[in-house]
Amino acid sequence: MTAPEPEESAVPQGTEDQVVLRLHDVVKIFPGVRALDGVQLEVRAGEVHCLLGQNGAGKSTLIKVLAGVHHADAGEITWRGEPFAPGTPQAAMRAGIATIYQELDLVDDLSVAENAFLGHEPSLFGFTRRRVTASRTREILARLGHAEISPRRLVRSLPAAAKQVVSMARALSHDARLIVMDEPSAVLAHDEVANLFRIIRELTAQGIAVIYISHRLDEIRDIGDRVTVLKDGRTTAANLPARTTPTRELVGKMTGRSIEYVFPPGRDAPPEEDPLLVVENLTRSGEFADVSLTVRPGEIVGIAGLVGSGRSELLETIFGARRPDAGTVKLAGKPVRSVEAAVRGGMGMAPEERKSQALLLDEPIFKNMTLASFTKFAKVGFTDTGGERAASERTAKSLELRPPGVIRPVRTLSGGNQQKVVVGRWLLGGTRLLLLDEPTRGVDVGARAELYQVIRDLAERGVGVLLVSSEVPEVLGLADRVLVMREGHMIHESPAAEIDEDTVLNLVMAGSLLEGEPA
Amino acid sequence: TSNNPTENTQVNTNEGNDNAAPGEKVVIGFSAPAADHGWIGAITSNAKAQAGQYSDVELKLTEAGADAATQRAAIATLIAEKPNIIVMLPYDGKELNAAGIQAMQAGIPVVNLDRAFPSAAAYRLQIKGDNYGMGLAAGAYIGAQLKAKGVSSPVIGEIAGIDSLELTQERSQGFTTALAVYGFKVANRRAADFTVNGGQQAATDLLQALPKMDALWNHDDDQGIGVLAAIDQAKRSEFFMVGGAGSKAAIDTITKDDKVLKATVTYSPSMASSAISLARLIAQGKGMSDLVELQVPKEIMLSSETITKENAAQYAKLGF
Amino acid sequence: MITETLPAEKREPRRLDEGTIRNLGLIGVLVLLVIIGIITRPELYSDPAWVRNNILVILQQASAIGVVTVGMTFVIIGGGIDLSVGAIIALAGVWCTTVATQSFGAAGMIFTALMVGIGVGLVNGLLIAYGKLVPFIATLAMLVAARGLAAQISDKQTQISTNETINAIATTRIFGIPLLVYILAAVAAAGWVLLNRTTFGRRTVAIGGNEEAARLAGINVKRQTVLLYVLSGLCCGIAAIMLTSQATSAQAGMANLYELDAIAAAIIGGTLLSGGRGTIVGAVFGVLVFSTITNLFAINNLETEVQNMVKGGIIVAAVLIQQFRYQSLTQLFKK
Amino acid sequence: MITETLPAEKREPRRLDEGTIRNLGLIGVLVLLVIIGIITRPELYSDPAWVRNNILVILQQASAIGVVTVGMTFVIIGGGIDLSVGAIIALAGVWCTTVATQSFGAAGMIFTALMVGIGVGLVNGLLIAYGKLVPFIATLAMLVAARGLAAQISDKQTQISTNETINAIATTRIFGIPLLVYILAAVAAAGWVLLNRTTFGRRTVAIGGNEEAARLAGINVKRQTVLLYVLSGLCCGIAAIMLTSQATSAQAGMANLYELDAIAAAIIGGTLLSGGRGTIVGAVFGVLVFSTITNLFAINNLETEVQNMVKGGIIVAAVLIQQFRYQSLTQLFKK
Ligand SMILES: Nc1ncnc2c1ncn2[C@@H]1O[C@H](COP(=O)(O)OP(=O)(O)OP(=O)(O)O)[C@@H](O)[C@H]1O
Ligand SMILES: Nc1ncnc2c1ncn2[C@@H]1O[C@H](COP(=O)(O)OP(=O)(O)OP(=O)(O)O)[C@@H](O)[C@H]1O
Ligand SMILES: [Mg+2]
Ligand SMILES: [Mg+2]
Predict the structure, then answer these.
(1) B1, B201, B230 member nearest C158 (Cβ)
(2) Residues 274 to 313 of C: which have CB under 8 A from any A CB?
(3) Alpha-carbon distance A416 to A215, whole Å?
(4) Maximum C-alpha span of chain D
(5) Is C24 buried (19+), middle (13-18) or exposed (0-12) by CB count in 10 A?
(6) For residue A109, which of C274, C202, C277 has the smallest C-alpha distance?
C-alpha cells in the first residue's frame, strides 16, 4: 500500500487572524501503534470543524493530545498564535480548551453540579460554595435546554442521555475558546441531537470554535463548517466544505475505497415459519408493561423508540438477565428464565454499553470472542485455546477487525472494533437468536456497512435478530418488521416496507400515526 | 517496666561463685518469640545481659518472629549453624516439640524456657514458671483477704491475657481452684491481649459489667498499667486488685499503696538469666555448685511468690 | 425528553438515599443489640445511672478507633486502603512517650504524636502516589516497618506516661461527658464537613469513584492521594494520644489489628471498598456497633471463644439487616 | 496502511507479557537476597551441603503458606478476597486433631481437615454469592467465628497429634527433598493448569475481570464464586495438614495472620487486588521472596524489630524493582 497522495486541500489555507488552532505533523506513538502519524489540522474561531475517520483512525487520540492527556511525540501545535504543549488537562483547560470525551467521564457519586464544576469548584477557603455551584449549574443546564435536571441530583441516578448533558455542562462551565466534542451524539436521541446543535450554534455565534467528531455523516452536513479526514493516524484531507463535499469523496478519503451502499439491498420476506422467540405480556414495573412480540428464524425485527423508552430493559429481560414481574419468554418453545438458559438455548445479546457490560478489556481479543463459547471448544473441562484462536481469527477476518490479529488486549482497540468483537462473540457460538442493543453506536461508516451485511447474512442463514436502535433509518433499512416502543409500551407494529421514517419518528415522539396515514 | 532499659535486667553477677571462672568457649543459640510485650522483652534483655557477664559465652540471637512456624524456621537455621547449646522460649511448647527433638538429635542440647515440651526427648533442661501456681497464689491471697474482711459472697473479677494461649488457661484454672477452697467463684472474666490498651479496654468493660466488685485479679502487670488506668478513669476503688508477673511498676505501686493494686504474684523473666547461666554450665559439663550432682538437673520450676506491701522492698530488684 | 422519563424531583416522594437507609439499618442493629442487653441483664438496665454510664463507656471505647475509622474512610473513599493505622498509632504513641519527648511536656508529646502520624502518612502517600505501589502492599510494608521501629524505640518495653495533662485527657469530663467522646465528635464532624462541604472531600470522591475522570477534570490525583494518607496518619496521631492517655502508657504492640477493625467499621457503615462512595456518619455507626457488641458480651460474661463465634454471626446479621431494609424500602418507593 | 503502521503479529518481536516480566523481576529480587546472604555470611554459603539444605529449608517454610496463596490467588483473580484462610487452617487443624478424629487414623484426619476447609469455604461462598455480602466483611466475620469455634473445640489447648503417619509428612523426604515441597509443587502445578488450561480458570478470570460481562455471556457467576471460596477452603485444609504435621500439634491460634501474608504474596506476584488478572507462578515466587527474607534474617541474627524495619523496606524495594524492570523493558520494545 502506498501513502495517500498529498491533496492540495491538505495544506492549511485559513487566514491567519481566523485560525486559532493549528497542528502540524503531530505524531503520537503507543507501544506497537502509531496512533497519530503526521496530523495536520487547522481550526478557525467560530467554526464547527468536523473530524471524520474510521474507528481507530486516531480521532480520540488527537483530541486527547489537545486536552493535555497525551503528549505528542513529535510535531507542532499552535494555539492562538503561540506554541502549545499542555502538560496536564488543567493546563489545557486554563488555556481555554474544554473537552467532552467519548467515554463518559463523570463521577457517579457526585451531584450534577459537582460534576459540572469538578476540578474548578467555586469555593471559599477550600469550602465549596454549594449554592453558587448549583445556581451556575442550573443556568448552564437551562442554556442546554435541560432545566429539569436538578443540580443536586446524584449522577448515578441519571439515564445515559442526561449524563451526556452533564458532560456538556462541564465543558460549558469553563470559559472555553475551543470546545472539543468526541462523538457527543452517540448516546443521544433524535430530538436531543437537534438540541445539541442549537447549543453548538449559540457557541459558534460567540466566536467559540468547536471540533466535532461523529460517525454520522448527516450530522456533519447539518452542523459542520469544514471537515478534516483522518485515516490511520494521518490527515488525508483537510478543510473540505462540510455541506457540499460529496459523500462518495468523504467515504473514499476515510476508507480508501468507495462504499456503494450503506444498507444491503432489500430482500424478500423470510419464509413463514414457527416463531423462534415468543414473548408474551412481559412486564417490569416502572420500565415496560405488557410487551408481546415474536421473532421468526431468519427474521430481523427492529424496535424503534426514544432513549429511555425501556428497550434495553426489555432486551435484558428477554435474555434472562432481569427477572420479569409478569409474562413469559419462550425460545423455540422452551421458557427462558436465566442468562445461562438463554445462552444454552442459542440466544445471544450484544448489550448497550460494551465496555462495562460485554468486554474483559485486559484480555486478548480471542478470549473475549469466545467468552460465551469456550466451554464448547473445551474437552472435559480443558480449554482448547488453539481452536479458539483459529475460530476467532476467522470471525475477526469476516468482520474486518482492525488491526487484524486476535491476541492484543481488547482495551487497545478503537470503539467500533470493540463492538465487532462483541458481535463476533455470538457469531462464534452458533447463535440462533441475536439480541442487538444499539449495535452501531460509535461505529464508523465503513464498519457499519460491514456490520449491516453481517447481520443480514446471519438472517439469511436462519438466525433470528431482534434489533434495538435509536437511529430510525437503521431500523427501517435493516429490519423486516418494525416495532415502536414508547414509554414502556409497544405501540405499533408493521412490516418495514409499509412504514417510513417520518411516521416512525412521529410515533416515537407523539405516539400517534401521522394524520391521513393508514393505521 | 521502666522507660530506661538499662535498669531493666536481672543478672547474677556471680560474685564468689567458682563456676564463674572462664571455661571453654560456649556458643549459645537463643530463640524467643518477637517481643511486643514487656515480659518477653525482658526475657531477651535478661538473656543478653547475663551472657554479657561471661567472657566465654557468645550469644546467637535468632528471634522467632510472629508465630510458631516462623520460629521453627529460625530453629532449623540455628541448628544448621551448630551452636553448643540452644536456649529456647518456644511460641508454644507443643508446637515446637518437634524442633526441640530435631536439635537434640543433631547433638545440640536444648534448654526449654517457660513453655514445656511434652516430650522429654526434646530438652536437656527445662526451666518453667508456674502458671498454675500463679493462679493458685492469686486465688489464695484474694480468698484469704476477703475471708478476713468477712465478705460472704464476694464479686470477683478476672482479666486474663491472650485467651488462646495455654498458659492463660493454666493461670485461670489455678485461680478457680484456689477460690473454690473458700467457696468463691469468678463473677466475670474478660480476656485482654497482654497489651496496656487491651488491659484498659477489657477492664473498662469488666467494670461496666460489675457495678460493684470486691476483688480483681489481672494476669499480667504489663497490661495491668492499662487496667489501673481504666480503674482510675471509672473512679472505682471499692475493691482491691492483685497483679501478675511482678513488674517494677507494679511493685512500686504496691509499695506506695496509693492504688487498688495491693499484691502481685510473680512470674519472673529472670528465668532467662538463669537459663543462660545453666546453659553455659551444661555446655561446659559443669554442675550447679550447691548440688551434689555433677551435672545440671533436668527440670527446674520457679515458684510463684506473692508480693505485698510488706515484702515489696525485698523483691524490688526482681521487678522488670 | 429526558424530562418525560425522569420524574421531576419535586413530584418524586422525597427519596432516602442509600447512605441514609444504611444508617437507619445500623441504628436498627444498635437498637436490637440494646434490646438483647435489656433482655439478658434486666437488673443492670433497670438502673438509669448505670444505663447512662454504659452509654458513655460504649462511646468512650469507640473514641480512639472511631477517630482512626474517620481517616480510614477517607482513604477508602479515595480508592486506597491503609493497613498501617495500628502501626502508626504504636509508633506515634511510643515516640511521644520516650523520656526525651516527655521532657517537653504535654504540648511536646501531642506535637510529636501528630508529627509522627503525619510523617508516616506522608511516606505512605508518596510511595503510593509517586512510587506507584499498590496501597495494600505499601501500607503493609509500613505496618511491618513502623511496628519494628516502635519496638526499637521503646526497647520492647511499655513506656509509662508520667505527664499529668496527657493522662488527664482520658479522665476529664465536660458536662459529665468524657473529653474523649468530644474528641471523636469533633473529628467526625470535621470529617463530615471535609468530605461533604470542601473541595478536598469532593475531589476525594472523584479520584476514588473515577480516577480517570478526575484526572481529565484537572484534579491533581497524586497530590490528593498523598493528602489522604497524611490525613489518615494525622487521625492515627490523634488516636495515639487518646490511647496513650487511656492506658497512661504506650508500647510497640498497642492498637493491634486496628486496621481490620477500622476497615470493617467503614465498610459496615456503607463505604465501598473499591472507593468512590462512603459516609462518615455510617463509619461512626459502624464503630459504635462493634463497641456495643463488645459491651454486650462483657455484661453477659461471655467467654472469648463464644464471643468470637457470636460476633461473626452478628456481623453477618448486621449486613443482612441493612440489605433487607434497603431492598424493602426501595420496593416501597417503587410502588 | 495498516500493515505498515502495525507489524502483523507474526513479525512482531515475541513480546514478554507483563506477568512474565514481573516474574523475572521477582527472580531478580530472589537473586539479590541470596547475594546479600552470601555477602553477609560467606562462611555459611561456602559450604555446599549447607546451601543445599538452606534451599530446602526455605522451600519447606514456604510450603504451607504457598498452598494457601494458590487458593487466595484464585479468589482474588475472581474479584474476591478471603480473610478467613488462617482461621480455616486453625479450625481444620484443631478439628482433625481432636481425640475423636485421631481415632480414625491418618486418613480420617486428612479427610476431616479437607472437609472442614471445603465446608467453611462453602459457607463463605454462599454468604458472598447468595447473601450478597461484601467478601471482605463475610470472610472477616468467618475469621472471627472460625477462630472462636476452633478455640471452643480445642478448649484453648494445644492438641498434640499422636498419629505417626501425619507427623511423618513433615519429616519424609523423597530423593532428598521434603514431601512438603512436593505438595506445594503439586498444588502450584494443579493451580496453574486449573487457571490457564481449564474452563474453570477462564470463568474465574471472566468474573473477576468484568462480572457483568461474564453474566451476560451466560456464565453462572454465583456458582463460580462459591467454587472459588471452596477452592480456597480446600487449600486451607491441605495447609492445615501440613502445618499440623510440622508442629505435630494444632491450636486455635495457629496460622495467625496468614491472610495478610497470602494476600501480600499474591499481590507481589502480580495479582490485581481488584480482580481479573494474576498468575500462580508469580504468587509462588511472592511466597518464596517472603520466606527467603525470613531466612536471611535468621542467618544474620537480626533482632525482630530490626527484621521488621528491614522487611518493610525490602517489600517496597521488591515492588519497585519489578516496576523498574517492567518500564525499562517496555522502553526497549518501543524502539
Ligand atoms: N492507550 C492506548 N494504548 C495503546 N493503543 C492505543 C491507546 N489508545 C488508543 N490506541 C490505539 O490508537 C489508535 C487510535 O485510537 P483512537 O481511539 O484515537 O481512534 P478513534 O479514531 O477515536 O476511533 P473510534 O471512532 O472508534 O473512537 C487505535 O489503533 C487504538 O487501538
Ligand atoms: N440509572 C437509572 N435510575 C433511574 N431510572 C433509570 C435509570 N436508567 C434508566 N432509568 C429509567 O428506566 C427507563 C428505561 O431507560 P433506558 O434509557 O434504559 O431505556 P432504553 O429504551 O433502553 O434507552 P436507549 O435508547 O438508551 O436504549 C426510563 O424510564 C428511565 O428513566
Ligand atoms: Mg474515539
Ligand atoms: Mg437503552
Answers:
(1) B1
(2) 276-277
(3) 10
(4) 76
(5) middle
(6) C277
CA distance B252 to chain C (A): 13
- Rounded Cα–Cα distance for residues A85 and A134 (Å): 33
Half-sphere exposure for C259 (CA within 13 Å, toward CB): 22
What distances in angstroms separate CA A19 from CA A47, A74, A180, A260, one per listed residue?
A: 10, 21, 16, 36
The one-letter amino acid at A21: L
Phi, psi of C100 (to 5 degrees): -60, -50
DSSP state of A271: P
Distance CA D178, CA A92 (A): 63
Q: Containing H/E element for A238?
A: strand A234-241
Asked if residue A325 has pLDDT above 90, the reply is yes
What is the per-residue DSSP string for D177-201? EEHHHHHHHHHHHHHHHHHHHBHHH
Question: pLDDT digit string (tens) for D233-279?
Answer: 999 999 999 999 998 889 888 898 899 889 999 998 989 888 999 99
The span from the CA of B267 to the CA of B257, in Å, is 21
Domain A1-87+210-258, CATH 3.10.129.10 — does that match?
A: no
| D42, three cell numbers | 560467606
* Type of residue found at A209: A
What lies within 8 Å, CB to CB, of B279 at 6+ separation is B26, B28, B85, B87, B109, B111, B125
D54 inside 8 A of chain B by CB:
yes
Q: From start to end of chain C, where are the E strands?
A: 159-160, 173-174, 177-178, 249-250
Which residues contact residue B180 at a Cβ distance below 8 angstroms, ignoring those fewer than 6 apart? none
Q: Buried (b) or exposed (e) across A134-165, using 16+ Cβ within 10 A?
A: bebbbebbeebbbeebbbebbbbebebbbbbb
Asked if B94 reaches chain D (Cβ–Cβ under 8 Å), the answer is yes
CA distance D165 to D163: 6
For residue D228, give every residue at least 6 positions away whose Cβ sits within 8 Å of its Cβ, in sequence order, or none.
D74, D75, D78, D80, D125, D204
Cα D294 to chain center, whole Å?
Answer: 16
Shortest Cα distance, chain B CAs vs residue C285, angstroms: 19
What are residue B263's DSSP bridge partners? B242, B308
Instruction: Assess C137–D contact: CB distance below 8 Å, yes or no.
Output: yes
- Walk me through the domains of chain C, giving residue ranges and CATH numbers: 19-33+50-320 (1.10.3470)
> B306-308 and B261-266 as β-strands: parallel, antiparallel, unpaired?
antiparallel
A255-272 mean pLDDT: 69
Contact between A383 and D197 under an 8 Å Cβ cutoff? The reply is: yes
What residues 245-304 of chain A have any CB closer than 8 A to a CB of chain D?
256
pTM value is 0.87
> Do B5 and C157 meet the contact criterion of CB atoms below 8 Å apart?
yes
Average pLDDT over residues C159-176: 93
pLDDT number for residue C311: 85
Query: How far is it, in rounded angstroms, from Cα B305 to Cα A480?
Result: 98
Cβ burial, residue B152 (10 Å; 0-12/13-18/19+): exposed
Query: If you write DSSP's letter for every residue of D290-327 in order, what string do you get?
Result: HHHHHHHHHHTT--HHHHHHHHHHHHHHHHHHHHHHHH
Question: pLDDT digits over D34-53, tens only?
Answer: 999 999 888 888 888 888 88
Touch between chain B and chain C: 3 or more Cβ pairs under 8 Å: yes
What CA–CA distance (Å, rounded) separates A493 from A484? 6
Residue with cell 418488521: A481
What are the sequence ranges of the domains in chain A? 1-87+210-258, 277-514
Alpha carbon nearest to ligand 2 atom 25, residue: A307
State whether CATH 3.40.50.300 applies to domain A277-514: yes
pLDDT range class, residue B268, cuts 50, 70, 90: confident
